[in-house]
Amino acid sequence: MFIVLLGPPGAGKGTQAQRIAAATQLLHISTGDMFREHVKGGTELGKQANEYMSKGDLVPDALTIQMLLERIGRADAAEGAMFDGFPRNVPQAEALDAALAGRAAKVDHALLISAPDDELLSRLGGRWICRNCGHLYHERNDPPKKAGICDLCTGELYQREDDRPGVVMARLEKQKPPVALIEHYRKADILSEIDGKQSLDAVTAVLLEAIK
Ligand code: ADP
Ligand code: ADP
Ligand code: ZN
Predict the structure, then answer these.
(1) What is the number of H-type helices and E-type strands within the chain?
(2) Is 123 considered catalytic here?
(3) CA-based angle 172:157:18, to the nearest 5?
(4) Catalytic (active site) residue 164
(5) Average pLDDT for residues 45-57, to the nearest whole number?
(6) Other Cβ atoms closer than 10 A to 101
(7) Which residue's CA is the closest to the ligand 1 atom numbered 18?
(8) Which SS3 state, helix, strand or coil, does residue 206 take?
(9) What digits encode the pLDDT tens for the residues 92-127?
(10) What share of the chain is helix, strand, coil (3-state, %, to 5)?
(11) Catalytic-role residue among 19, 36, 123, 171
(12) 185 within 8 A of 85, measured Cβ to Cβ
């Protein structure tokens, strides 16, 4: 089964992907996490991607699609995956469709999570991430038991550079899912729209029901 998670920055894609992966064993592929690994590792791709990420822009499709296709070509993605943060536009969606068609597979579900801008802003501003295992927290909505420390692995929590106010505004302006992307999946009759303003547990329950 292949699933795409769509929604603006802060809607809850990453958090829900972590929860769905834990509940279903489905492989979680986050292009944002992949880019951040490259930035951290100082690779050529990381250097290029960071020029865009640091301004709140999307990384160009050529780089993004190549990285994604390489990732889904690996053995662990043979049976399925859940994509978090990909696709962000129609060319990316078409590249994914073509790659899956080449192996007699397709996107089975597109899950669109929405929330109002004021909620997105407050979520991104309070987001903390485990440096070690990547688990997502929120300082008010979903805090760790001990401030700054991951409940799961005792790793150190950090805040993303691009979650600072200036960059967040740019991301909210530039990175909402385009209507044409949503229509792409509506036309394929695989779109589910989820009210992301509900509690974390309520959203997880709706998503699990949608992919059952
Ligand atoms: P995205 O991957 O869509 O950018 P995240 O999953 O990283 O969003 O969530 C952004 C922040 O909002 C995180 O700190 C997360 O803990 C918090 N969050 C996500 N979903 C909810 C929710 N339904 N209610 C309250 N806070 C949430
Ligand atoms: P968020 O959780 O806030 O939605 P992500 O972690 O998914 O953000 O992405 C972080 C950054 O990585 C984005 O601002 C963008 O620059 C880049 N990025 C991630 N996925 C893509 C993609 N599919 N296409 C282009 N750029 C991407
Ligand atoms: Zn951790």
Answers:
(1) 9, 8
(2) no
(3) 65
(4) no
(5) 97
(6) 10
(7) 12
(8) helix
(9) 999 999 999 999 999 999 999 999 999 999 999 999
(10) 50, 15, 35
(11) 171
(12) no
